[in-house]
Amino acid sequence: MNPGILVVEDDKALCDLLTWNLSAEGYDVRSTGDGEEALLMVREQAPDAIILDWMIEQVPGIEVCRQLRKDRDTARIPIVMLTAKSEEEDRIRGLKTGADDYVTKPFSPRELMARVEALLRRSQPSLAGDMLVFGDIELDPASHRVRRGGEALHLGPTEFRLLRYFIERAGRVLSRQQILDGVWGMDSDIDERTVDVHIRRLRKAINRPGDTDPIRTVRAAGYAMDDE
Amino acid sequence: MNPGILVVEDDKALCDLLTWNLSAEGYDVRSTGDGEEALLMVREQAPDAIILDWMIEQVPGIEVCRQLRKDRDTARIPIVMLTAKSEEEDRIRGLKTGADDYVTKPFSPRELMARVEALLRRSQPSLAGDMLVFGDIELDPASHRVRRGGEALHLGPTEFRLLRYFIERAGRVLSRQQILDGVWGMDSDIDERTVDVHIRRLRKAINRPGDTDPIRTVRAAGYAMDDE
DNA sequence: AGCCATTGAAACAAAACTGTCACAAAACTG
DNA sequence: CAGTTTTGTGACAGTTTTGTTTCAATGGCT
Hints:
2 copies of one chain form a homodimer. Chain A has helices at 12-24, 35-44, 61-70, 88-97, 109-123, 125-128, 157-168, 176-184, 193-206; strands at 4-8, 28-32, 49-53, 79-84, 101-105, 132-134, 137-140, 145-148, 151-153, 173-174, 215-218, 222-225.
């Protein structure tokens, strides 16, 4: 499924231009020239990024931005704002309000494309491909981050390697020795029971109250993460 | 050295008029009425901006534009296109192809000057798009300035390069060695811990009280810049 | 020369993380 | 069910890693 982008721009010609270009790049584009309608459209189906003209009719872009940031569901959507070159004041307020990037008019479509792509890669590594997923758990090897249900988790270095090791081998039972070899290194002379302790620490770190434990203990054999 | 401008216009009278005006403004002007020749001239010596008539003989302006955008070396040169008033269709296509601005004939030389100047101003300090943005932090590589929330910050040379390095690689964990290679140079024999010290100096410089620290420490791995 | 900003390193402090133990709890065995 | 084996937990002391301060060296500038 292609990333969805919402264009909010009341200059019809420019709006069409952007839509055309973004579509050509493979994005799923919707557009509107009205701030109110933009908010509705976002609520109806959240896009992966928003291109927002700062000077639109009815609702100022800055207000649209603020509204979006206020709602938990939409707060993390990347926003690129379009400003006229002289609107220095707006630019600053825009960044303060939570826009993620800005482009000053006039601009080349090429430039905007590049910005949008950069933002998407930054905010949604999963759209870029690299990212390990298991159920509602996401692990990003590049940024060393782990989230569950969208919420960031903090893992120590060993827990991180351990989780990664498990997700990469989801569905298989892993013996303590295998785990030691894979996570600590083949030549480690560490007690097997130490694995137990780290499994516990990992469980503690990823299971918020109410969550189901994705790690299954296999008595007399080891541990496993099950496919759903 | 004065900014160089290439005028591509086959109406001899108009071409002279533009050349005369631009020269008077202190620009270093070259001109041609032929699309093929224009491409050669650009390749020979890249101008800082191009004024391009959409309706020239031989090669259509749109094609010249496309050619220029295709080559990495010329892709970022600002282009102002000149169109007849009724050529609405061309205007759209022109912008799609990558022109940065347009002026419809007939126009006043004064107006064109203003547009060119605006484009150059934009492309000089930072090519307008070269401004690196991360959250509310702006870094202008050309003018060597950094701002956060609109407020100017003072960074030493190393801190500047460090911040730039991070913003350009936002979202990835960077090891101390990578940072040394990228910021100090591949052949530096500097202690890895020195990175820590500069990270601290950078943090001190960009985090005003109340700000959130954009630099995340990844234990046993390095540092990373993240949203939030 | 004198002053000031910058820089890399060293040293110490503060955190964060690790591996083991000892014991409790749970799961098997016959 | 009593005995055995295996796993879960909490505590802890030692290590590793990172944060911070300090300092001497360097180099630009006046």
